[in-house]
Amino acid sequence: MDILISGASVAGPALALWLTRYGHRATVVERAPALRDGGYAVDFRGEAHLTVLRRMGILDAVERHQTHMGAMWNVNEAGKKIVAMPADLFAGDVEILRGDLARILYDATEPTTEYVFGDSITAVDQDADGVTVSFERSPARRFDLVVGADGLHSNVRSLAFGPEEDYLSYLGLYAAVFPIDNYLGLDHTGLTYNPPGKMVAIHSARGNTEARAVFWFGSPPLDHDRHDVDRQRELLERAYEGVGWEVPELMRRMRLTDDLYFDSISQIRLDSWSRGRVVLLGDAACCASPLSGMGTGLAVVSAYVLAGELASELAGAGGDHRAAFARYEREVRAYAEGCQRSAVGVSRFMVPENRFMAWFMNQNYRLLPYLPWKGLMAKSVRKTASAISLKDYGAYEVTRPAGPAPRPRPSGRAS
User: Fold this and answer.
1) How far apart are CA 175 and CA 322, in angstroms?
2) Domain range spanning residue 201?
3) Which of 92, 93, 137, 330 has the most neighbouring CB atoms within 10 Å?
């Protein structure tokens, strides 16, 4: 089958890897002109996440690029360290920068996958035999299936399922992150400062050769164009106006970067993840939000199941993609909802509402390593991350994609 995937971050390339192993031809279209290098550090935890990475053949590469972060320190406005938060309280089994993970997935799939960067889907017209897809720049093409793996603000979901506001649940926070040089000389660690209603952090990255500045703040929903970076800079500056510590310096550096991520912390809730020949994957289908710490693991697990169920269904006589989509959703939905539940209520933990709550949380941070429920917290998170039984779809793998020779790659393909 010819399958179009919208989105080249994590879920899309992960799905492409499995589809080509099962003999399909995958095309990935991405609005950005190239792979996005920025973003958060993301975690994989528990046996389900690690099993999928191992079966994909990328676990070793992910481990080679892991952050090896140690304790994070809470500081006061003067920069004095108040309390350390041990890494084992919050980190997963493996932590990696999202940009590094995207590069690993791209390198693993590029030889067998057609990538089209700098383009976007404008229309999806289904019929009994396939889908005609129109693009902003490329000529219209026919595909057997279309997968929306294009994130919280999925373009495919809007085209096939309706407006975003019908499915988005805002959790009361906004987040921003951008790369900076490691001007504080942090060594596999980070610093966090919690003024009321806000949090700002700086942590080292890529073997201390650089760093990330991360911001979380509470706010009513903001009316802005998410593609307007100048407006995003303005909103971030306004939210942190008058805040001390390193914030003025970080705002100066933020004005100079062309790699700013800024978005609401929200979840996606849909009654169904498929419509005809269109199916949603990862954040587009069931975004749990960064508060859960499991969105990336959920994405790779979901990609594994979707591709496997398609392979299983289409290997039989009269295989029907609709049956495969239904089984994929049955396998993953309860797992995804558990990941979403883990994020609800975390906002007060991440961003204390007032000075008293900030003080209260600092006291808890001090005591947490010595409290009997420390292990229970970590165990609960791992239990949520592992709460899915993975089928083995290995019998459907082929050595090379089936069908005719690969088509010529369009000029928009990444170099």
Assistant:
1) 37
2) 2-396
3) 92
